[in-house]
Amino acid sequence: MPALSTESQDFLTWLTVERGRAANTLVAYARDLGRYEQHLGQRNSSVLDAADDDVIAFVHVLIGEGLAASSITRTLVAVRGVHRFLVAEEIRPDDPAADVEIPQVPKGLPKALTLEQVTALIEGVSGDDAVSRRDRAILETLYGTGARISEVVGLSIGDVDLHDGLTRLMGKGSKERIVPVGRHAAAALGAWLEPSGRGAMEPQRWARRGDAEAIFLNQRGGRLSRQGAWGVVRLRGEAVGLRDELSPHVLRHSCATHMLDHGADIRTVQELLGHASISTTQIYTKVSNERLLSVYRSAHPRATR
What we know:
The chain is mainly alpha-helical.
């Protein structure tokens, strides 16, 4: 296993000097961080630029290897620890592991919402005020495109073509991709971009450069942050009884899962999600047992009696 990064080594030194951790604990942390950094390297990432998707994918790799929940939790403690350290030392401004939880689902896959739950979530935002329009547009865009939350809040007005139903997303490593925007998401975005929607949140004077081009604004008239969008999803989920089941990543996973359930090819889903490797897509997507059985029974010559 390659040597640890300077940042992880500094974290272990801090644990030794400032926290007085035992030698065995430090060995375990070093081993866990070594696995994490190896995982990040395979995704062309590092502890300095890792995103929440990288951390989530790492957790699912551990689950896929059949590790006990206690072992996964211990490993995640090390991962969370190094990212908290980097934020505290002002080495990076955000903590990608802060909101990552160990998925409690079979075979280590995140649990997708049902179609009924998605409908209830989106239809639950029924107001015509600016905040309601914005929140519905966020939910429709997350589910309709399978985009990461960072990609959605990073959208600018020039990135969206509602006439042709397309949007440009800037993914990890500044990789650009064009994805379709479905009818419902386009309608929600159109309603939000009207003067009585986004226009009602525009300030008299833009505080920061670039805010004027942002698709999604906060109520102070600035570009909506990733944390702010997380809050929107959480609040709207709680309103329809999805407090524990919902996160932006769950909407991304639900989009992919429902597409597979309705016959989409996994390569198409890979392109939609912006994954460099098909193996990553397989972590986020799950073909339902019903569809597997249906395909098997219709395709295998000795499947039916």
